[in-house]
Design goal:
The protein is mainly α. It has one domain. The protein has five helices and no strands. Helix 3 runs parallel beside helix 5 and helix 4 packs antiparallel against helix 5. The chain is globular and about 35 Å long.
Length: 98
């Protein structure tokens, strides 16, 4: 599964933060880490959109991963392993209803 954000051009030079019209700050993702973790991110997306019940802990871990602008999804310099963090969130969502 391709992750669209990894395929987008990098943020313009002169600063990585963008302020869209709605006034919400956006931090560009670390494209290399996203591309390297595409399979795991695809698993997370499928589990969250799957319609079945999911555990609150998994949702919380996914939320932190997505909203932490200093985390491995956004910062190449982060010591955290993005794949491991995404797998942790997927596993914490609970068993899949396959």
């Amino acid at each position: 599964m391709r992750v669209p954000a990894a395929d987008r051009p990098p943020a313009p030079a002169g600063g990585g933060l963008r302020m869209p019209a709605a006034g919400v700050m956006q931090v560009p993702v670390c494209r290399e880490r996203v591309a390297d973790s595409a399979e795991e991110l695809g698993d997370l997306i499928r589990r969250l959109l799957g319609g079945g019940p999911v555990a609150a802990r998994g949702v919380a871990l996914a939320s932190v991963l997505l909203t932490d602008g200093s985390g491995p999804l956004y910062r190449r310099a982060s010591a955290d392993d993005l794949r491991a963090r995404v797998r942790e969130a997927v596993n914490a969502l609970g068993p899949s209803a396959r």
